[in-house]
Design goal:
This protein has about 525 residues and is mainly α. The chain folds into three domains: about 70 residues; about 170 residues, no CATH class; about 240 residues, MetI-like (MetI-like fold). It is about 70% helix and about 5% strand. Strand 5 and strand 6 form a beta hairpin. Helix 10 runs parallel beside helix 14. The longest helix has about 70 residues. It starts with a helix and ends in a 6-residue tail after the last helix. About 20% of the residues are buried.
Length: about 525
């Protein structure tokens, strides 16, 4: 009897010590995170200074090299400063020189066309002063056409003129074409620089009596020693067109008043500076309240969704991998099948199944468990709880597959040593399994956290962001994330608040980038650098 009473006495001191150690570790971790956040804010200004310094040095060195090549160059090289390709043509590279010349002529023609580059640069009005209405409009107002009413018996009455519309500029197209024009100007500057460097390089080769490669030889290098340029050209171009350009367009749109009332073709929109961000942050009214509530729920949702799937998938994998469990492949296959079904189909079916008119509520009413049907998604608490649990059904199988292989790679010697030291299953989990899993899957966990912050599918197909709430004319859903609220403000709703939507997109991107960098810098995969202990 005395021997049996010793076991709980050993367990409780260990539990207390473990809790104390956990509190101390959490405190240290919290202080490290706070210091990392402070350093991140400081680094923002440091990096901004370094970027500005790099740009100035780059421009300075570029101008310095241009002056050097002009001074040291012969007449063929100097002629290339005015007529691109001249140095190549007079040095025997006729085909390459003609390509440079044709591109220069095409660029100049594009700039001076009636609807060319200079036209779009003038229309942007980004450096103009406010007009009489205090607004810096993007584009021209256009022409207002009027007609005079002919009253029977009174003739033409000029006092009864009516406006039949106006041909205002499309501000969205102006910003888009302005961006394309700026991109073409930057590309032309790079091409102009390559033209001068190429002409000067040929001059140096001839002065040293070395072989000047022909156009055919230089083209063949793109499939040989410069093959990396050929391979990377297409992906770089697609990234610029389909990622960088829309991102810059969205950022510019955030500094306008683009909305339902200020949008082409009915009207233009204007530059408003930081007014949109002031409305979201500096104003204590409806927009600031809605943003604060949605942002807090977005972060809470990301935490709950990430760790519920992570812990649930790990526990499921441990159960399946446990010795004595039969038909392990069959159990894994069942969960893989749930992954094979497209997520939007699963979420839509569950939303219908749990709806007030769904089969579950009808069955509960029929068997007498409920007096009437209940809408689970009608209240904030039940809707949020439901989507977290349903998200586990969708996400746990992924984590189970990932962690299954990792669990099998944990050395058995660690568990054997822990058992010899008297550690039970709980202590083995927190001392061996969980640290090892966090060490290996740390980057995956961070990407899942950021992915859940932008998890559009689960919210949209289950609740649509509801239940809705309106405060001071601003409507938002109690289960809305930043990404779904952005959708409702721009595409899904009737308000068409494009400027606010763009601002929310920028905020979401900055928060995601900031959190991911902080978390990754503090993760064991980064700090221990491949040395698990």
């Amino acid at each position: 009897m005395e021997h049996q009473s010793v076991k709980p006495l050993k367990f409780f001191p260990w539990l207390g010590q473990t809790l104390l150690d956990s509190i101390v570790k959490f405190g240290k971790w919290l202080l490290d995170v706070i210091w990392a956040v402070v350093k991140a804010f400081i680094n923002i200004f440091v990096y901004a200074y370094k970027v500005i310094l790099f740009v100035f040095r780059f421009v300075y060195n570029w101008i310095k090299n241009l002056v050097h090549m002009f001074v040291k160059g012969n007449w063929k090289t100097r002629l290339s400063y005015v007529f691109m390709g001249s140095g190549h043509i007079f040095n025997g590279q006729i085909a390459k020189g003609l390509i440079y010349l044709v591109l220069q002529v095409a660029f100049i023609i594009y700039l001076f066309l009636p609807s060319g580059g200079i036209h779009w640069i003038q229309q942007i009005n980004i450096f103009n002063s406010p007009g009489g209405d205090g607004m810096i409009w993007i584009g021209d107002l256009g022409t207002t056409y009027s007609y005079i009413i002919n009253k029977p018996g009174f003739g033409m009455d000029p006092y009864l003129s009516r406006s039949i519309g106006q041909n205002a500029s499309n501000s969205m197209l102006i910003i888009l074409y302005w961006l394309l024009t700026v991109g073409l100007i930057i590309a032309f500057i790079a091409l102009y620089n390559a033209n001068i460097k190429g002409a000067y390089k040929i001059q140096v080769l001839k002065e040293n009596a070395r072989h000047v490669p022909t156009f055919k030889e230089e083209a063949s290098q793109l499939l040989d020693e410069k093959f990396h340029v050929t391979i990377l050209a297409y992906p770089v171009l697609t990234i610029l067109v389909f990622t960088i350009l829309p991102l810059i367009f969205m950022i510019l749109l955030a500094f306008t008043n683009a909305s339902l009332h200020y949008f082409p073709p009915a009207s233009r929109f204007a530059w408003v500076g930081l007014d949109t961000f002031t409305k979201l942050f500096g104003d204590s009214g409806s927009w600031a309240f809605a943003l604060g509530e949605i942002l807090s729920w977005t972060i809470l949702w990301a935490v709950l969704a990430t760790f519920s799937n992570y812990i649930g998938g790990m526990i499921l994998a441990m159960i399946i991998n446990k010795k004595g469990i039969k038909f392990k492949r069959v159990w894994r296959t069942f969960f893989v099948i749930s992954i094979a079904i497209p997520q939007f189909i699963t979420l839509s079916m569950i939303a219908k199944f749990l709806g007030s008119d769904g089969p579950l509520m009808s069955l509960l009413v029929r068997i007498g468990w409920l007096d009437s049907t209940v809408n689970i998604f009608a209240t904030t608490a039940s809707a949020r709880t439901a989507i977290v649990l349903i998200n586990m059904w969708v996400g746990v199988p992924y984590t189970m597959l990932i962690t299954s292989g990792i669990l099998m790679n944990i050395p058995d010697e660690l568990y054997e040593s822990a058992r010899i030291d008297g550690a039970g299953p709980v202590r083995q989990f927190f001392s061996i399994t969980l640290p090892y899993m966090l060490y290996v899957t740390g980057p995956y966990l961070i990407t899942q956290f950021i992915g859940n912050m932008n998890n559009f599918n689960v919210i949209f197909f289950l609740t649509g962001g509801g239940p809705d709430q309106t405060r001071g004319g601003v409507t938002y859903g109690k289960t809305d994330l930043l990404i779904t609220w952005l959708y409702d403000l721009t595409i899904g709703g009737v308000r068409k608040e494009y400027a606010i939507g763009s601002s929310i997109g920028i905020i979401s991107f900055l928060i995601s980038a900031f959190i991911s960098l902080i978390m990754f810098s503090r993760s064991s995969a980064e700090t221990q650098q491949g040395d698990f202990a």
